[in-house]
């Protein structure tokens, strides 16, 4: 999927030409603030390069295309691939059946390792077993906390969604919130439901759930606005993705509600919002780490026979809290899209 | 040729002169109520009123002016796109690329302005050109190949989806655009595309004003101009329209470009309301626009419809979407309720048009 | 036929001798298929030129060339003596050639008055406020239709709700109104009943008397002979007969139209195969193509 998208990018040549022409003609229209010029130059993480034989690793996720969070996972994976001298084949598909087909594709390519997400474990069971049978080491990441061991994966890198939800719930107890609104942007996604359930479990106040259409931001905004109006006792909005949190901040602002905002996951705009105080804190599951570690572990397994967690325990990459106290250290990394 | 001259010539040789009040008895004047029912938007108007009254009763917060403003805002972001989509549908075509087209436009504006460190208006203008270009391409391919618009625009839908992601990633290194809110021209553009104003204590979004203004303009164009006449004609019977001299290719291509304009406008709203755009958004919205047009009484096969119907169609969508939240119901049922409403509206339309044309 | 219009047009309309539209050995090929070949035809003002032929004889192709829908591939098309190539129907219309198609070229869902003015709408006001002059258009459409003997109480009704004859007359009235110098009528009576056919023939005569050149496409020689001044019979894409009214009788015309010699052979064969009593079959001269046969859908 990703590769076809890239080949299509050739078709943008005219658009680039138009943009270039516009640059020349409208040179006088430069913005004196913001923009690319103002963006600080940030170098990539580099940690030397391994001299082990070249190997190929496939990472297959259930990510929707064009999502910031998943892009960070991919960046982590790419960093590890560069360091470990391995070729990374990244592919993604939201539908479980198509994701399984992509795994089969990797098996057919005889890759040296597979990193896979198990968002819908039962649908992936058969094809994962095939990979294991073919002697390809498989590790799990992000989703599949309860199934990875049973399906014969070597290791698992991720956040226990329920645990991170519970952690957020506990934290809310200390902020004095009474009524939390948990905003779910994809209806019926297991990991998102687990987060909300986790919050509800540990939070002593009342928890209400709200579904929004994550593909349509104006709709997200008015739906949260509507809910805040409908129930004025809500004093905490918990969102499950960074862009949703930023939109929720606008809704809160507009309704004049006293609600604070806590969210799962980070991006660089969110960091600024935490700095500015419009968002209280974020629970980071460190997606970069998930991508990086899963690929790196396959390299270690191949070259040194190590496996993280000893095949018994998952490697937890979160929850890590980011709030005003530690936001400055995280900010520099987030600006590069790696945190 | 001069029309008045011909008219005069025609009057000089009346072959069957008859008194002005003569009736031939084949047709009778239809009662006002029936003629009113024959309007394509009446079904959806009744439906929208029903839904509104329903939520007024069952969801107390809806009675608040601020809530109505919020519902109208949600409706307007659907409605602004539903208008050109409806005109296109009356003209006999679909545009499945309308949803991602919105995001493509927002991404273009944001990236051009940010990457070149330009005044944001430069990005806004480039995005307009790009959006109109996408529309033109859709229309041109359609006329050139003679393929159904479903296929052609499905192609552009997929291409745009891929290009949105790939180009954003290629240029920004991320899958979302950078925040442009501190750049020159941002506040001006925000004032145009996504500001709000106070009516008493209620804050109303400017998109609501644009939505209604565009709807009024579209209604006027559709019913009172040559171009509007052509839209009905190319949708109703393309070959006949061509035979009597209607420029079919111009009409269809310009309709696609109109959808491009709508996508640009909504895209700019999203950009200036939320400062950044995620490249994967917008997928699936095209069906909501089409649904609003169909609920609004536009014939799926073309040739019939109105611009005011989709306004009520979009309002119905916004009302239900927010009404369920205001009512505090279990949101799990939202999609099911929406589906029932869609079927219901279609059935009302069918019933009304049958009742009106029965002779 | 209940209506007979046997006027002598040559006496009422002075002939200036110059054809408005002229075909000179014109032909059209669609790839390998030659639909029309070497057809010559001239249309004079105030005259009715009838083009007859069976299904697939090339009548539709002929119309499409003159009305600008298709372009000829051989020979020439002359308007007022100048060779032309119409690339769109609009160009033909601008040259004063209006066509009333078999399918009437109306948009069924649109109101009668909008159909009447479709493609040539009246407007008023300066741009960008230029708008349809609806009142004038409705009034004009109503007057023109009344002149044609069609009285509609509601011009807002979709034209699809009118009867076939009414729609035909709306289409003819439209062409006449828009200043056509040449009116092409494609099988106007094919789908009509006897009485409505008479009405349509009356309007053909009327258009002729107004000085229009009329091309009347039909496969009914009786209808053709009632109003025609010149008769061209097409067979398999070529001209089989081209004769003026005083050179041909209805019987001859019918005979040509019905296939003449071929028909005689067919009659003979039928007699041999099934023992049909040939005496009971109509004589060659009586063989006609019924008016109510299905409209010619092929080229």
TrEMBL record, chain A:
<dbReference type="InterPro" id="IPR025997">
    <property type="entry name" value="SBP_2_dom"/>
</dbReference>
<dbReference type="InterPro" id="IPR028082">
    <property type="entry name" value="Peripla_BP_I"/>
</dbReference>
<keyword id="KW-0732">Signal</keyword>
<comment type="similarity">
    <text>Belongs to the bacterial solute-binding protein 2 family.</text>
</comment>
<dbReference type="Pfam" id="PF13407">
    <property type="entry name" value="Peripla_BP_4"/>
</dbReference>
<feature type="signal peptide">
    <location>
        <begin position="1"/>
        <end position="27"/>
    </location>
</feature>
<dbReference type="GO" id="GO:0030288">
    <property type="term" value="C:outer membrane-bounded periplasmic space"/>
</dbReference>
<protein>
    <submittedName>
        <fullName>Sugar ABC transporter substrate-binding protein</fullName>
    </submittedName>
</protein>
<feature type="domain" description="Periplasmic binding protein">
    <location>
        <begin position="58"/>
        <end position="301"/>
    </location>
</feature>
<dbReference type="InterPro" id="IPR050555">
    <property type="entry name" value="Bact_Solute-Bind_Prot2"/>
</dbReference>
<dbReference type="GO" id="GO:0030246">
    <property type="term" value="F:carbohydrate binding"/>
</dbReference>
TrEMBL record, chain B:
<feature type="transmembrane region" description="Helical">
    <location>
        <begin position="150"/>
        <end position="171"/>
    </location>
</feature>
<feature type="transmembrane region" description="Helical">
    <location>
        <begin position="42"/>
        <end position="59"/>
    </location>
</feature>
<dbReference type="Pfam" id="PF02653">
    <property type="entry name" value="BPD_transp_2"/>
</dbReference>
<keyword id="KW-0812">Transmembrane</keyword>
<keyword id="KW-0762">Sugar transport</keyword>
<comment type="function">
    <text>Part of the binding-protein-dependent transport system for D-xylose. Probably responsible for the translocation of the substrate across the membrane.</text>
</comment>
<protein>
    <recommendedName>
        <fullName>Xylose transport system permease protein XylH</fullName>
    </recommendedName>
</protein>
<keyword id="KW-1133">Transmembrane helix</keyword>
<feature type="transmembrane region" description="Helical">
    <location>
        <begin position="96"/>
        <end position="114"/>
    </location>
</feature>
<dbReference type="GO" id="GO:0022857">
    <property type="term" value="F:transmembrane transporter activity"/>
</dbReference>
<feature type="region of interest" description="Disordered">
    <location>
        <begin position="1"/>
        <end position="26"/>
    </location>
</feature>
<feature type="transmembrane region" description="Helical">
    <location>
        <begin position="287"/>
        <end position="304"/>
    </location>
</feature>
<feature type="transmembrane region" description="Helical">
    <location>
        <begin position="71"/>
        <end position="89"/>
    </location>
</feature>
<feature type="transmembrane region" description="Helical">
    <location>
        <begin position="202"/>
        <end position="223"/>
    </location>
</feature>
<feature type="transmembrane region" description="Helical">
    <location>
        <begin position="333"/>
        <end position="352"/>
    </location>
</feature>
TrEMBL record, chain C:
<feature type="region of interest" description="Disordered">
    <location>
        <begin position="274"/>
        <end position="299"/>
    </location>
</feature>
<dbReference type="InterPro" id="IPR027417">
    <property type="entry name" value="P-loop_NTPase"/>
</dbReference>
<dbReference type="Pfam" id="PF00005">
    <property type="entry name" value="ABC_tran"/>
</dbReference>
<dbReference type="InterPro" id="IPR050107">
    <property type="entry name" value="ABC_carbohydrate_import_ATPase"/>
</dbReference>
<protein>
    <submittedName>
        <fullName>Sugar ABC transporter ATP-binding protein</fullName>
    </submittedName>
</protein>
<dbReference type="GO" id="GO:0005524">
    <property type="term" value="F:ATP binding"/>
</dbReference>
<dbReference type="GO" id="GO:0016887">
    <property type="term" value="F:ATP hydrolysis activity"/>
</dbReference>
<keyword id="KW-0547">Nucleotide-binding</keyword>
<dbReference type="InterPro" id="IPR017871">
    <property type="entry name" value="ABC_transporter-like_CS"/>
</dbReference>
<feature type="compositionally biased region" description="Acidic residues">
    <location>
        <begin position="277"/>
        <end position="286"/>
    </location>
</feature>
<dbReference type="InterPro" id="IPR003439">
    <property type="entry name" value="ABC_transporter-like_ATP-bd"/>
</dbReference>
<feature type="domain" description="ABC transporter">
    <location>
        <begin position="21"/>
        <end position="261"/>
    </location>
</feature>
<keyword id="KW-0067">ATP-binding</keyword>
<dbReference type="InterPro" id="IPR003593">
    <property type="entry name" value="AAA+_ATPase"/>
</dbReference>
């Amino acid at each position: 999927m990703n590769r076809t998208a890239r080949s299509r990018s050739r078709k943008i040549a005219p658009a680039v030409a138009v943009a270039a022409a516009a640059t020349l003609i409208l040179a006088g229209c430069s913005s004196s603030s913001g923009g690319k010029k103002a963006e600080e130059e940030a170098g990539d993480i580099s940690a030397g390069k391994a001299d082990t034989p070249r190997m190929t690793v496939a990472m297959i996720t259930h990510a929707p295309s064009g999502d910031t969070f998943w892009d960070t996972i991919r960046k982590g994976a790419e960093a590890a691939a560069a360091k470990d001298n391995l070729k990374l084949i990244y592919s993604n598909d939201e539908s479980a059946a198509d994701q399984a087909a992509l795994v089969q594709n990797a098996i057919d390519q005889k890759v040296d390792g597979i990193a896979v997400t198990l968002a819908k474990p039962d649908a992936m069971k058969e094809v994962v077993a095939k990979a294991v049978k073919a002697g390809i080491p498989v590790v799990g990441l992000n989703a599949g906390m309860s199934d990875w061991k049973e399906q014969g994966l070597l290791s698992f890198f991720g956040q226990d969604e329920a645990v991170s939800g519970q952690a957020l719930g506990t934290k809310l107890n200390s902020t004095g919130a009474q009524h939390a609104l948990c905003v779910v942007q994809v209806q019926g996604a297991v990991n998102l439901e687990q987060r909300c359930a986790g919050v509800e479990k540990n939070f002593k106040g009342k928890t209400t759930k709200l579904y929004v259409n994550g593909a349509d931001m104006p709709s997200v905004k008015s739906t949260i606005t509507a809910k805040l109006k409908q129930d004025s006792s809500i004093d905490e909005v918990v969102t499950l993705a960074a862009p949703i949190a930023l939109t929720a901040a606008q809704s809160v602002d507009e309704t004049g509600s006293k609600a604070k905002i806590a969210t799962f996951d980070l991006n660089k705009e969110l960091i600024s919002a935490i700095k500015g105080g419009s968002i209280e804190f974020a629970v980071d599951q460190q997606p970069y780490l998930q991508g990086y570690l899963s690929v790196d572990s396959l390299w270690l397994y191949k070259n040194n026979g190590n496996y993280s967690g000893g095949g018994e325990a998952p490697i937890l990459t979160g929850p890590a809290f980011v709030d005003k106290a530690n936001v400055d250290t995280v900010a520099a990394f987030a600006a590069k899209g790696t945190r | 040729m001069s029309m008045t001259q011909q008219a005069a010539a025609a009057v000089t040789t009346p072959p069957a002169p008859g008194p002005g009040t003569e009736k031939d008895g084949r047709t009778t004047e239809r009662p006002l109520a029936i003629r009113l029912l024959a309007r394509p938007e009446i079904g959806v108007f009744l439906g929208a009123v029903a839904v509104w009254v329903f939520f007024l009763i069952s969801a107390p917060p809806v009675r608040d002016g601020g809530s109505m403003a919020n519902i109208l805002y949600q409706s307007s972001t659907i409605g602004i796109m539903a208008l050109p989509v409806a005109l296109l549908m009356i003209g006999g075509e679909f545009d499945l690329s309308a949803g991602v087209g919105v995001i493509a436009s927002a991404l273009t504006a944001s990236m051009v302005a940010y990457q070149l460190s330009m005044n944001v208006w430069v990005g806004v203008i480039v995005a307009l050109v790009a959006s109109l270009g996408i529309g033109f391409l859709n229309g041109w391919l359609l006329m050139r190949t003679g393929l159904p618009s479903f296929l052609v625009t499905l192609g552009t839908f997929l291409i745009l989806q891929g290009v949105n992601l790939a180009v954003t990633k290629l240029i920004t290194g991320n899958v979302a655009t950078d925040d442009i809110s501190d750049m020159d021209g941002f506040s001006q553009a925000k004032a145009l595309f996504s500001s709000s104003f106070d009516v008493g204590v209620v804050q109303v979004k400017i998109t609501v004003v644009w939505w209604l203004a565009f709807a009024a303009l579209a209604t006027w164009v559709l019913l009172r101009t040559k171009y509007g006449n052509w839209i009905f004609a190319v949708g109703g019977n393309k070959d006949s329209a061509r035979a009597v001299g209607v420029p079919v290719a111009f009409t269809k291509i310009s309709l696609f470009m109109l959808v491009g304009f709508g996508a640009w406008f909504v895209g700019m709203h999203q950009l200036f309301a939320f400062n950044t755009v995620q490249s994967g958004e917008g997928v699936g919205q095209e069906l909501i626009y089409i649904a609003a047009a169909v609920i609004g009484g536009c014939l799926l096969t073309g040739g019939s419809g109105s611009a005011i119907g989709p306004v009520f169609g979009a309002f119905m969508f916004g009302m239900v979407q927010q009404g369920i939240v205001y009512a505090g119901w279990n949101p799990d049922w939202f999609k099911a309720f929406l589906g029932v409403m869609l079927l219901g509206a279609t059935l009302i339309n069918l019933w009304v048009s049958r009742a009106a044309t029965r002779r | 036929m209940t209506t007979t219009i046997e006027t002598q047009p040559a006496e009422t309309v002075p002939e200036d001798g110059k054809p408005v539209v002229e075909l000179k050995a014109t032909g059209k090929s669609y790839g390998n298929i030659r639909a029309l070949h070497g057809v010559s035809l001239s249309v004079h003002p105030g005259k009715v030129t009838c083009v007859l032929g069976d299904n697939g004889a090339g009548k539709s192709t002929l119309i499409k060339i003159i009305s600008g829908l298709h372009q000829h591939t051989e020979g020439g098309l002359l308007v007022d003596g100048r060779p032309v190539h119409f690339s769109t129907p609009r160009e033909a219309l601008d040259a004063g050639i209006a066509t009333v198609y078999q399918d009437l070229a109306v948009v069924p869902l649109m109101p009668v008055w909008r159909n009447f003015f479709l493609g040539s709408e009246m407007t008023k006001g300066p741009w960008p406020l230029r708008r349809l002059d609806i009142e004038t258009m409705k009034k004009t459409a109503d007057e023109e239709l009344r002149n044609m003997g069609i009285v509609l109480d509601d011009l807002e009704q979709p034209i699809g709700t009118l009867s076939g004859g009414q729609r035909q007359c709306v289409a003819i009235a439209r062409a006449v109104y828009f200043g056509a110098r040449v009116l092409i009528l494609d099988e106007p009576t094919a789908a009509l009943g006897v009485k409505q056919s008479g009405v349509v023939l009356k309007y053909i005569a009327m258009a002729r008397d107004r000085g229009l050149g009329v091309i009347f496409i039909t496969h009914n020689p009786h209808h053709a002979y009632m109003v025609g001044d010149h008769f061209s019979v097409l067979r398999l894409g070529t001209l089989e007969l081209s004769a003026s009214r005083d050179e041909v009788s209805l019987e001859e015309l019918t005979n040509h139209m019905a296939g003449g010699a071929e028909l005689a052979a067919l009659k003979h064969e039928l007699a041999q195969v099934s023992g049909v009593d040939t005496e009971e079959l109509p004589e060659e001269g009586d063989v006609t193509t019924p008016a109510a046969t299905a409209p010619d859908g092929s080229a």
